[in-house]
Every structure is written in C-alpha cells, then in structure tokens.
Amino acid sequence: MITLGIDTSCDDTSASCVKDGKVLSNIVFSQVFHSKYGGVMPELAARDHLKNITFTVKEAVTPIGFNNLDNISATYGPGLIGSLLVGLSFAKSLSYVKNIPFYAVNHIEGHIFSLFIENKISCPFICLVVSGGHTELVYVKEMGEYEIMGRTLDDAAGESFDKVARMLKLTYPGGQAIEKLAERGNPIAIKFPCSKLKDYNFSFSGIKTAVLYYIKNNPNAKTIDVAASFQKAVIDSLTNTTFECALKLKVNSIAISGGVSRNNKLRERFTKISKQYGIKFYCPEKDFCTDNAVMIALCAQHYFKNKIVSPFNIKANSRASLIRS
Ligand code: KG4
Ligand code: ZN
Known about the structure:
Elements: E1 2-7, E2 12-19, E3 22-30, H1 42-61, E4 71-77, H2 81-98, E5 102-106, H3 107-113, E6 125-130, E7 135-142, E8 145-151, H4 157-167, H5 174-182, H6 205-217, H7 223-249, E9 253-257, H8 264-277, E10 280-282, H9 294-305
Parallel strand pairs: 1-4, 4-5, 6-9, 9-10
Antiparallel strand pairs: 1-2, 2-3, 6-7, 7-8
Helix pairs in contact: 1-2, 3-9, 4-5, 4-6, 4-7, 5-7, 7-8
Residues 107, 111, 131, 258, 291 line the site of zinc ion.
C-alpha cells in the first residue's frame, strides 16, 4: 500500500510517499525567508505554501507515479490555520480527483509516528513531543490511545530557544544556533530558573524573561555562557519531568520527538538517564525530528490498517487536540 503524506502545518512544505512503512520519497521545502523576521510570519507562510505545494508533491510522487497511490493524507492541525488549509485542501482535491481514500492526521500524532520510521517500539511508552509549537508529555498506551500527562502552560520549548536566539542576535530557527554557540560555553556559569510545576506540566516563559534581564543587566556577559546555561536549564526541566512521570507510570520505554529532539545534549541526557534506570530510549533520526510528511503518511497507514476513517469534510483546526473526542 502506497500512501502520500502532506504536511504544511508551519513553515515547511513537505510531501512524502511511504510503502507499507518504508520511505519511498521525502521532500521538505523549508521557507528560509522567515529568518529575516526572526520568526514565522503566518500570512507569508501560507502564501509560500501555495507557491510550493504543487512542485513539492510532484517531486515526491513522480518517481512512484500518481496512479500508484493507494491513499492520500494531510495534516489538519494543530498549526497555523492559513498554512494548514493549503496542504489539507490540496490533499482533499487530489483524493477526490483520483478517487482514493483520504486521511486527516493530527500533527502531534504524526510526531509520535516519526519514532517508527526507524524503530520498533512496544507500547506502552512515554513520548515527549518537543517542538517549536508544542511541548506535550504523552502516555502512549497503544498507538491511537493517548493520555496527555503534561504540557507547557505558556511557551513551547522550541519557541523559547527561538526567542532567546533572537535576544542573542542569532539566526532563526534558533534551536540549532543556540546549540552550536553553547558548545563553547559553560553550562553552569549562570543559574537560570526553570519553573518546576505540578502534574508534569512545563513553563518556559519565565526562563526567557530571566535571560532577557540577565543580558540587559550584564551587557558584557559571554553569549556562549548564556546559551549554554539556558540550554542546560531547559534540558534539566524536560528530562526531570519526563523521568519523574516515566518512573511513576513504570514504563519500560521512553521517547522524544519534534524539532527540539534534534538537540545533541538533550539526546545524550535522555540516553544517559535511561541507562541508569534500565529504560529503553528512542528518538527519530535527526532529519525526521523536524516537520516532515513521512510521519503523516505513516500515521495514515496505521489508520488504514485499523479501519479508522476520516470524514472528508474535516476542517483545518489550528488548535486540534491529540485526544479525539
Ligand atoms: O517540529 P518542528 O520542525 O516544528 C513544529 O512542529 O513546531 O520544530 C521546530 C523547532 C524550532 O523551534 C527550532 O528552534 C527547534 O525545533 N530546534 C531545535 C534544534 N533544532 C531545531 N531546538 C534545540 N536544539 C536543536 N538542535
Ligand atoms: Zn512539528
């Protein structure tokens, strides 16, 4: 079975073909122009998706052949509404014209499925989805059966990387730039507070403000130390809360996915602590941490196998929840 996946939830136009779980093609067209604004401009993102969607899908499908597609899937949310509408409408039109089934996929569920591109993981497990738009600690009882154990109450972890990068005059997206700068810095030079909340929730807006005031009050501070100390505080918060939850639920496996899971220090920390507790640790290969359509197609194949139908009239939903009502 060959599935076309499409994701246009934020600033990447992505299309992929997956055959029975195997990646046949994966095209990601990143809208680099947002870097000059220091963040994603929603209106411009939607317009650029419109410009790029046709050739991105064509590039992903041409080697396979449009007539060989068995079904089509696209992200319906969460994400930027204008961006979502482009991929969703395009996928629905194609499915209508080709008269093949259509599946609408939740973007966060897609990030959970990105773990299966290269791994086999037994449920139940805990997955920390940590990206520019989300920080959700998900208890995966079965694929498709989720419980949100915690989430950010304000900024997403990736968003805090992006905002601090902007304060340090680094390029957007900021996660990679901070990670690179932090390599030369001292992570214990500055103590940035990262609020510890009840119920496995997270908060990253306080640390962002703390960094802002620190830079204002210490104009000669070494930016390498600011970057390293900030990164350590965020990683401490993510790991402490995730492992606390994992130990309470007594899971044997733990996973991270989403753009921030590209971060080497975060991956290393999870690897180390998992070993200490005898828990298996999984993360996607780096190219599949950030937004891609392979994860959307994989999720759709799961829907197909489990006879989960998607209503064709499903609407784009910028705040779509992982938990189906
Ligand atoms: O998953 P993604 O592509 O988009 C969303 O669904 O939000 O994640 C993008 C986010 C950005 O905030 C970016 O700064 C962050 O992932 N990111 C990183 C790294 N690479 C990307 N954060 C920390 N360290 C990295 N190496
Ligand atoms: Zn994402």
